[in-house]
């Protein structure tokens, strides 16, 4: 197992490098870079993207600085901007310098916020921790027992009406469910039970310890429910189908013939085999909710998290934030994938990744 872990860790290097190369190469062909953003604002006070719909402020991208919107600006000023942002150097040199900094976990500073990328991410992290941690935890705590129950009572009225509820939940987009929660419970049209802004109240510092905990959960209830709805539906059906496949196998019939209780059969034999496919979806669910965030849900509930940070950085072409977060989150995602393999072994010791090598 040790050799397998070492191989997987070594595989992280080319995988991560490939991700960075691909995204860096794509960026070179995307118009509207940071210099163009600045020039567009200086010339007209607008946004560079207006030029793509007929406004016309840009002819070439970074490296070939002949901007129609910059015709009234001194060439020395534009050259100074290029030096400041590093675009006076060839793309390969910029990429190698960037990767050397990232290897040392130096992600630089945001172009437009004058703050280190690490500090910026840490500033937004509480929102993503809240949505990711609680959404994933609730999805697993509810979906796994419910999926097992549905598998045991397959075809019964309980299975039928819960399946209907799950299908409805799966069909409703998270942002639409969030709007429904706001309308019903956050002062939209009916009740004003939950707040609609931030993770805590304005007087949070003055509250007692237990009141702080209550205030925190009071604020996160609606956004967490909105983030959990689709993952909950998918995970429940996945658990049910996985258990149904295992229950029909010969070893389950043999265990029952030996006189084992139904609980012992389910949780002593079926559980470890059926849970493998459920655990395999954990990295995608965790990374998707925790790091990707939900731009629309964060916006609806006035939460300033990584979802909004990523969107704003992409629109503003804030490359240090875009590439810094991409590198860090890709690395964490790859490590989580390795931890998932280790969890496989803990659940079912019969799995031998070493033999696969």
Automatic annotation (TrEMBL):
Q: Which Pfam families match?
A: BPD_transp_1 (PF00528)
Sorted alphabetically, the Gene Ontology BP terms of this entry are: microcin transport; transmembrane transport
Print the keywords alphabetically.
Answer: Cell inner membrane, Cell membrane, Membrane, Transmembrane, Transmembrane helix, Transport
Membrane topology classification: Multi-pass membrane protein
Q: Which domain of life is it from?
A: Bacteria
Coiled coil located at which positions? Answer: none
The subcellular localization recorded is: Cell inner membrane; Cell membrane
Where it mainly occurs, coarsely classed, is: membrane
- Record carries keyword Cell membrane: yes
Where's the ABC transmembrane type-1 domain? 125-344
Presence of keyword Transmembrane helix: yes
- Which ranges does the record mark as transmembrane? 9-30, 127-148, 160-186, 216-239, 274-301, 321-347
CDD domains, alphabetized: TM_PBP2
| CC annotations in GO | plasma membrane
| Gene3D superfamilies given in the database record | MetI-like
> What SUPFAM superfamilies is this protein classified in?
MetI-like (SSF161098)
PROSITE patterns the UniProt entry points to: ABC_TM1
Which family is this protein grouped under? Belongs to the binding-protein-dependent transport system permease family.
Q: What is this protein called?
A: Microcin C ABC transporter permease YejB
**Which organism is the protein's source?**
Histidinibacterium lentulum
